[in-house]
Design brief:
Radius of gyration: 20 Å
Strand order of the largest sheet: 7-4-3-16-17-18
CATH topology of the largest domain: Purple Acid Phosphatase, chain A, domain 2
Number of domains: 2
Number of strands: 18
CATH superfamily of the largest domain: Alkaline phosphatase D (PhoD)
Shape: globular
Number of helices: 9
Oligomer: single chain
Helix content: 10-25%
Distance between the termini: 62 Å
CATH architecture of the largest domain: 4-Layer Sandwich
Structural class: alpha/beta
CATH class of the largest domain: Alpha Beta
Order of helices and strands: HEEHEHEEEHHEHHEEEEHEHEEEEEE
Largest sheet: 6 strands, mixed
Length: about 400
Amino acid sequence: MKRIIALGIVAGLAACQAPGPISIPGITRAPQSAEEALEAYYRTLPDDFYPVAPAGLPLPQEDTVLSRILVASCHDEELGDTPALRSIAKEDADLFLMIGDNVYGDRDGPAYAVNEATLDELRESFADLAARDDFRAVRANLPMMVAWDDHDYGANDAGREFPFRRLSERIHERFWGLDSKDVGAWPGTYYARMFGPEGQRTQIIMLDTRFFRSPLTPTDEPGAVGKERHVPSTDPNQDMLGNDQWTWLENQLQKPADLRLIVSSIQVLPTDGHGWEAWSRLPAEQQRLYDLITETDANGVVFVSGDRHTAFLYRKDGILPYPVYELTASSLNKAWAEDTPEKDSAQIGAGYPPENFGAINIDWETGSLDLEVKDKAGETVRHTTAKFR
């Protein structure tokens, strides 16, 4: 009963955003904000409050030369067996990147379920994912790195305004076993890893585009092509990553690497093909990213993204000292259409809306990548070659 009363207090604080004294089992304090009150309460939750993924394979050793990486996003754990996950589990690869909307924890069936201070639906969604045979097959066969997006963050299209973000961070890190690694040492879920020796070194940078992001600007023409949900922000204080993550990213880009995969849950390069979430909705931050890559002399950058329920390939010239490519892989089991008329100025060929995943094949001898979109059966349906040196 004490826990229920305490939960009601912190939930009320989150709703009104008014600081004040709070009594939580084991803690008496005067929080400076509603978020601090929630943080104090979350620290009292037992370990069994958090779902945990089935044991997975360890990441490759730091000196391992990577040659093949798989990538996917957008997986609804409430749906039946996912053929794309079955195909991924059978693939021969060094690493699998599951890069956002790994569950739909802000929804229960077709209805949105938000504003739960204990994020019951999100926790249930992760527990359901952990129990799935198709997901367990992937965990048993491929090492994984993960990022989150809005639906496994806890609220559709949300950023730093989401009042329960600190609990969603805990849920994410506990489920994926990241809480004991460096990602658990700071707010947000960003982290990076290096693989391979000099001359064959791959850096994988997993960005957090949720925890620190400022609110987006709603469209004035819902559904209009290029303005479907959001329009570019003119706010001079717009922010995608937050000060600490920007500083961390600058430090990462200064480290020596031959190939750098910058993983963003939302798309980076597209600017004029759609009005959904993307870096182009915060254009000053999009330019800041390009400027940072240029200023740090970071070579070999390739962007990887998800979110869009359609797979795309992109190439853009003139924004970095070299042509830059992006692979968008989405979705694993939430396809909305068979084809799409969308065409961004950076886009290579047509998008692929049916269920899919992506593959990145690295040819160290030629300094090139094969970027592939694969259908749910594992057949290549889109392809381009990108030079990284």
